[in-house]
């Protein structure tokens, strides 16, 4: 694969948001509420992702949903009666909150009939792309990567090095078994970010056999070639079609893949152990709730014997 000329510029139109999971780690709440609608303070995780996509300049959100998860899409509808009521009562702040989601990149539902894996989910989104889209972003709604804006940086790296760029965190070795793990080497890159070249990638390896402690964390900038690779993989870890295996296949075939090691923090909204700290973090930063929360958290910690 040739490097793009320095004048080529990546414009992401579509952000793929896989949201078809059953949310089993969040039962019983997820019996009736999709986990993507659970609020981080007052805003569902999926809306935070849509805001991140809007910030990137994307115009379409391809939301992969399961047959019984239509509520996720409904969140992006407009709510005329509610808006009228709030307007008539002069509740401008609440009105803006109701309207916000409908002003974000247009969501398109892509139904995944069976839970065949992240690779399968992402592959389905090809059907909604325009012919001129040579790159897509994937944002996993379980992962909040902060501060936002990491995909913009990954776009800069693709403009320089071509191919695909994935977001990585360096995690403790005992945690790698939860992730897609990168086999890396030094990149031919002198820019301002921490960038490495990927030699290979393996999904959820044992800690002992993992090639590094750099792991994939929820943000991918993928060349359109990924869709062809996704059609050629077979079930991998957990018996599922893995996005990781399609990335590994691209690398084998000479497609450049790099990671941008994010210098920031991350919350995993996919389970209560990661969701609770996210709510506390956003709560403490909130102008209305922050000061009180700080005070009561101190009391609670004291009570629990810090
Ligand atoms: C998925 C990916 C994995 C990645 C992780 C990031 O796994 O398959 O490669 O590291 O997201 O959160 P999941 O968490 O869906 O099991």
TrEMBL record:
<comment type="similarity">
    <text>Belongs to the UDPGP type 2 family.</text>
</comment>
<dbReference type="InterPro" id="IPR029044">
    <property type="entry name" value="Nucleotide-diphossugar_trans"/>
</dbReference>
<keyword id="KW-0808">Transferase</keyword>
<protein>
    <recommendedName>
        <fullName>UTP--glucose-1-phosphate uridylyltransferase</fullName>
        <ecNumber>2.7.7.9</ecNumber>
    </recommendedName>
</protein>
<dbReference type="InterPro" id="IPR005771">
    <property type="entry name" value="GalU_uridylyltTrfase_bac/arc"/>
</dbReference>
<dbReference type="Pfam" id="PF00483">
    <property type="entry name" value="NTP_transferase"/>
</dbReference>
<keyword id="KW-0548">Nucleotidyltransferase</keyword>
<dbReference type="InterPro" id="IPR005835">
    <property type="entry name" value="NTP_transferase_dom"/>
</dbReference>
<dbReference type="GO" id="GO:0003983">
    <property type="term" value="F:UTP:glucose-1-phosphate uridylyltransferase activity"/>
</dbReference>
<feature type="domain" description="Nucleotidyl transferase">
    <location>
        <begin position="16"/>
        <end position="278"/>
    </location>
</feature>
